[in-house]
Amino acid sequence: MERRINYMQVAPGAFEAMFGFSKYLQKCGLEESLLNLVYLRASQINGCAYCLDMHWKDLRAAGEGEQRLYGLDAWEESPYYSDRERAALAWTEAVTNVREGHVPDEVYERARMSFSEKELADLTLAVTVINSWNRLNIAARTVPGTYQPAKPRELKKGA
């Protein structure tokens, strides 16, 4: 597979705008592990090899267990996820597959039981952003395999 488009070279402003959303989400208050589960699940649905490689590696680097990663595609039948994670995954699937039911009320009500209004707004932005990254990477045929996660932050003495 050969890359079609290098967005950083041909449209750096648009790429930086996308990074701006991602930077906001890193600081929005939602758990990093939850965001990465959402990113991985949406990437599974969309079939984005580059994003699957990236978010799998990020989750593993953060200490996520293999069992939860292997079971993510069948999260509804797997006992390894919290109620909050289940609500986020249901929301992720509904927003990603918006054409199939336009985010049903029961999925919204489930999410509202686990997330504040701001958290749900941020979660929706996270799902929207990963869906955009998936589409950009799929269209460009970004080649997976080279991504390296950031090294875990070391705690400072006395912290």
CATH superfamily: AhpD-like
Sequence of secondary-structure elements: HHHHHHHH
Radius of gyration over C-alpha positions, nearest whole angstrom = 16 Å
Provide the β-strand percentage band.
Answer: under 5%
Structural class: mainly alpha
Overall geometry: globular
Number of strands: 0
Uncertain runs with pLDDT below 50, 5 residues or more?
154-159
Distance between the ends = 46 Å
CATH topological fold name: AhpD-like
**Major sheet: size, sense and barrel closure?**
none
Number of domains: 1
Description:
This protein has 8 helices and no strands. The protein has 159 residues and is mostly helical. It has one domain (17-140): AhpD-like. Helix 3 (32-46) packs across helix 8 (117-140). The protein is globular and about 45 Å long. The model is unreliable at 154-159 (pLDDT under 50).
Descriptive key words:
8 helices; AhpD-like; 159 residues
Note the topology.
Layout: H1 7-10, H2 12-26, H3 32-46, H4 49-61, H5 66-71, H6 83-96, H7 105-114, H8 117-140
Helix pairs in contact: 2-8, 3-4, 3-6, 3-8, 6-7, 6-8
Give a concise summary:
The chain is an all-alpha fold and 159 residues long.
